[in-house]
Every structure is written in C-alpha cells, then in structure tokens.
C-alpha cells in the first residue's frame, strides 16, 4: 500500500514538473501577445463595428460570421459552426420611468434611469403607474403578505456589499433578487418589479441581466426592470418623504420564438493525442445596452488569440486545442449545453476547459474546478507565472459555458482578472471598448495561452493513472 | 557563536509573528476603507475643485490649505506646515506645433499635439521652424555629430518597450531621453528637441515631465517638448516620405524665482515610543496638464486616510505615525529633501517610511528597500494580506520623496498598484478623477494602513537588536 502511494506521488511530480524550456516558452507567449497580439484589434471590431450581440439578434449573427472568418484566417485545422436554437428577446423602445411626486400646486415628474430585465414582459402601452413598496430582498415579500403588496410596484433595493474584496461575491449576494424578484412579487399581486442595479458603483447606468418567471402562468407575469444605483437612492429617499408617491414606467420588450444560431469553433488538431480535447472559450453573445466589450467580447478575443499565440510561438500541441465561442450565455446557456451534448454524443474525451468571462482586466490567475490532487499538481506551475504577476491559483468555479462539460475526468478553469471594475460596466451601456485596456487584455490572452500550453504538454493523465490504480 | 545566531533568529520570529487578532484588525481596516473611506471624496475635491498642482502655482497653494484643513478635522495630535522653497515654472499659452509639408501646389500644415517639458525654455515669440533629424536615443547624437544636427530640431523617437510586464521598467528605459535629450542635443547645435511621449498607449495626449539642462549656459538652452505617441508615428512617417520637411513649434513657458511653499504634515503621537517615527506619504504637487488624480492625488489621499483609518479602526499606535504630503516631487524633490533635512537636524528616529506614488489602481503589494534579513521578516506577514489579494512583497525601490531619509536603520517601502494603466495617464491631460476607481483607491489606502499597523505593532527592533549584537 505504501509503495503504491509513493508511486503515485512520484508519477505526479514527474508529470507536472516544469523545465527551463517552459520558462522560455512562456516568455515567448507573453512577448508575442504584448507586441503582436490580435485580441485588441478583434475586440475593436466586435465592439465598435458590430456592438451588443444579444442572442437571436442581427448583431449576434454578424458576430458569428466575423469570428468564423477571422478564425479561418489563422490556418487552423478546422473551423466550423455548431447549430443551436436560442431564445430571442427584444428590448423594443427605450424605457421611460419617473417618480410622480406632487406638491399642493402641481405634479412633478422626476425622471429616473431604468432598463427592462432580459426576459421581462412589456408594460401596457401607456406604462404602469402605481404606488411603490420598497423591500430589501424578495424574501421580505412573505412577511408583508398580499395585502400590502397587491396592486403595487415592488422595489427591491438590496445594496451591494462593498466590504467584499471579490466583487463577484458581492454580485452573487444580489443576483437572485434580479432573477427571481418579479416572479415572487407577482405571486403577491404586485403589478411590476423594479430592482436596484447590480453594480459596484453609484452612477446613472441601469444594468440589465436575466430574470425568470419560473412556472408562473403567462397571464400572471409582471414587467420588471433595473433602476440605476443613483436613482435607487433617489426613489428610496422620495419614499421616505412620501410613502404614497407613485412610480411610472413603460417598456415594450417582447419574447419571440427561438431562432437558429451557432457556437463558433476552431481547432488545432493534436499531433500525438488528437482525440483528447482541450478547449478555451468565452461567450459571443452579450447584452444589448453596451457593446459587450468586457462581457464577454474580451473572453472571445482572448480565446481566439490563444490558438493564434500557440501557432505564433511555434508550439505544436500534442492534444487537440479548440476555441469555442459560445452563443447565448446571457439568457439561456444554450450554446454551452449544446457543446457538451454534442461532445457526449461523439464520445469526445475533454480533458481541460478554460473560460474567460470575467472581463478584460489585468489577469490575477485562475480558479480551478477539479480534485484536490489535481489542483496540487497544477499549483506546481505557479512559479512559472510569477514573472507575469500571476499569483492567484485557487480552487473554485470556472465558467458558465463550460460547466455542462463537468465530469470526474475533466479539469475546468476560469481566468480570474482583477474584479474591481467589472461590475461598473457589467450588462450596462458603459460596457464599451474604451473601457478595455490593451495591455490588460493582452496579458489575459497570454496567461490563458501559457496555461493551455502547460496542460497540453504535461496532460492530465495523473488523474487517469490514479483512477486506474484505484480501480 | 552558534547560540548567538539562534537567539537572533528566535528573536526575529518572535518580533514578526502575527496573531489571529491581527487578522481581525486587518479585516476592520479593509472594511472601514471600503465602506467608510474618505480617500475618494478627498480626491474628488483635489482633482475637480483644485486641479493640477504644479509647484509654486496658486493651485498648489490651495492644495496645501485644503489638505491641512482636512487633516485638522481628523483629531490628530499635530498638524503643521513645513516651509520649503520650490521652483516655479509656468507653461504659458497652449503650445502649437505642425509638420510643414509641401506639394507642388501649396504648403500643408499638419497639426500635431505637443506640450513643453517641465523646465524648458520658450521658443522665440513666433516659434521655431526647422528641419528635423530623427534618432532613437540621445546617445545617437554623438555618432551623427554636429554637422548633421546643427540648426535642426532633434526628434527622439524612442518607443515604449511593450514586452515588459512592469510599465515602470519600460518608463525607466526612456526617461533619460526626456530628461537629458535637450541638453545633449544643444551641445551639437540643435535648435529644439522633441521627444516621443513616455506613454504605454497610442493616442493623442502629449505627456510632460521634468527635463534638465544640466550645466548648459543659459544662452545655449533650447526649447524641448513631448509629442503624442500618435503624432510621433505621424512625424516619423512624414520624415520617411520627405526627410527635408520642416517642423514648427511654439511655446511660451517661463522659469521664475523660487517661491515659498510647504510640506503638509499630520501626526498621531505614539503612546509608547513617541520618538520613533513611521511616515506615510505621497506628493501634493502634480503636473499642470491634468488634475494629477493618479499622480499623485491618489497617494496623497490614501496617505491621509491611513491616519484616519487607524483611528476609525480603534488602533492606538505605539509609535508616532505621520502623514507627510510632500511638495515638489515632480520638478525638484525639494519637499522630500527638506523633510529629511529637518528630521536629521532634530535627530528624529525614523524607523519606517511608506510612499504611494504609482497611481490609485488595485494594490498588488509593496516593494521594500531594506536588508535581506529585515525583508525576510516582513515577508512573514504576507499570509495576512492574501485575503485582500495582496501577493507582491519584493525588494526594490520605494518612493522618490522618502528616498532622502535612507540610512541603515530605516525600512523604506513603496505601495505597488497594478501598473498597466498608469502610463496611459501619467503627466498628461487625461490624468483625471474619472479614471480613478473608488474601490481600487480604497483598497490601496487599506493595504497601506494594514502595513503601517503591523510595523507599528511589531516595530523594526530586530534590526537594532542585530546591530547591537554585532557591535
């Protein structure tokens, strides 16, 4: 028994050590990305020539065509489109909203900035005007009961937890208010739901995002929107002065039948193990308010550049390396599910998947969804990344699109860029190209490429070995 | 002998270990900064109500008054101004410059963006128009010789080394072109010097900065300016087409007599060792083109907040903690020199000095200028900072203003924020408040406070002990 354990450990160290040659390869990868990267140029096109790419939209279609054409220029072994049916939701006219306040002489309407949540129904043509009940979380609805809610607009004013260093953790703390708020409020007879924008910043941008009515019948669905953080404060203050004020909002969004769209895939076929797949990706769709530059144009162009940087750095992968540009992460995850479904059907052995979907900011490292043993081996590569100020190697989540690939054999990973500014822009009109820094984006692409290079070179066979020994 | 070494090592471990209580203090410090920090509000005033604060200017005076008044509100034990004579250089009217090109029919003037370098002389009233000779570094002047340079404008077009992950290293690679270029070019009879802006970005902003004529007699001094990176490319391309083109530039800057200004100092007097000083600071002056928000408004407000955050977190320092807002870092370092001079005169024992002068970006850690032994002890605190994603503890430089305090006993340190965006803004008109992220700034203030807390609690006595044993 002892001998067996020793063998495993030795085998692991052998499999995951690294050489001076690796240091030099990483240097080449980073230098190439910083001096001859394509990610920034691609992102410029995706953001400024195409723009927001909501699933089912014309722009999403243009983005499919553009990225496919760009991948085809790279001399990969294969580039193809993987069909997937996606939901089609359309915002319609720009939303309007105001707080109706009145003094003894006349009504005053104070305009506020809102946007419909993705998937919401429209208001009646002339909008909704109703009293407002402010709560902190949809869980408060039960305490209040139907009597206090019926006929009103529920305003969920849950504030961002600024104490948390990880802004993703703070986001996680409010996301269900946006996602479930309308369905829950509707159950108590609310006529509309307004949620404070999920943003780390006080400003005038409303932030959209997906919501769900769950199993609520169509006739019971109520319109829901996000209000900017500044206007959430304004509305809350106004309610403190006059709890009987009325709020008006109008939106004309519509849900259509599903439409055909695509995941865009490119592959360098492995020279030794062509049937082992390593994938790297981001999602091609985005919300419609901004250009989707950080979410997730950045992840798309970085992933595309991984394959290009491998080639430019003279690396011939042993395993098949795929870039997968997933469609419909934002409001359905259909692309991620489709890719995993097809991979399973074809019995493709995926050993590693890496997603970049946390913005094009300075990379800090990765989080890994894998066994402790596997993680301890990956951690041994950490010193290789230190010259590039990549220190963060932790266990944790990976990415929504690659989640459906999860099984006991695959290692899932997510690029972890600096998160401080991400939710200033996330799902809002200011998620635009000028907020992406070229060097930060390129450092991310290089960091991803370096990890893919190491995984390809050293494989993930230790897991398999150990499983075999166990079996 | 062996026993003595062991004693030293044990003593060091004792002195620098940390406790669970420290973890909880750091948590309080970070939470307070992120939820109740003052740095962002102070920076808003400094940037938007005052603006660029070049030494000797009205704005510099306003900044002295404002920060003194704000420190006085904090209930510190002492707040005072330390007089220091500073240079006064004034830019005058906005500079103009163009490339004179001509085709057979008519002259065409292509406007370009330049700014005078700090300390430069003016051009004659109508500007200078002359042929241009492009070089990569002022060291090329010697190879060319007077014959090829005389009567021309020397254009030093040294490009930024994008390969380097540390942008400060890339800056260091070109800084002497800006600083020495004019003096060197003048020796060979040049009539003007134009340097490519020291910036990591391709854009239209010229970046100023200090230059020196060394011991060049006044009558030999030639005007010098920085040209934006986009226009450096434009000029270089134009020269490739026509090496005989002329370049015109006009600037009306002036150097005046030195004027009286101040370092602003606040102190919490130590409860146990009032005669041991820990200082934390940034520089109050800035260049005149932008608001000096990152350089170094950020360092100023973070340093002010260190003393406030200590108080708000209920910490009673054992040693005297001073915030020092240095005047004239940008074009003279008079404030830093004055502070060290007075400290020496008064025989004040300074044990630790920390400067923040690298922008208000996400903090990555610190660099320390101290002995290896001391550094290994400080490094033992690293785990305390990990929850805040502070990983970088390295030996290296600290800050220009605290440099004059250097001796064998003091530990000097510099806050090291993420450097990728710093030189997009440094010394340019786009160094403005809107480019500073609130959370990034506040994380920096908290990180500085945490280090000051630990240094104060555990002291730097190991160094002294070791010295005593050696003696």
UniProtKB/TrEMBL annotation, chains A, B:
Superkingdom: Bacteria
Subcellular location(s) of the protein: Endoplasmic reticulum; Golgi apparatus; Lysosome; Secreted
Q: Which residues form the PA domain?
A: 141-234
Query: Where in the numbering of this chain does the Peptidase M28 domain appear?
Result: 263-449
Instruction: Give the source species.
Output: Winogradskyella pulchriflava
Keyword Glycoprotein assigned to the entry: answer is yes
Question: What is the annotated quaternary arrangement, including any partners?
Answer: Homodimer. The monomeric form is inactive while the homodimer is active.
Q: What is this protein called?
A: Carboxypeptidase Q
Q: Name one Pfam family in it.
A: Peptidase_M28
Which of UniProt's keywords are assigned here? Carboxypeptidase, Endoplasmic reticulum, Glycoprotein, Golgi apparatus, Hydrolase, Lysosome, Metal-binding, Metalloprotease, Protease, Secreted, Signal, Zinc, Zymogen
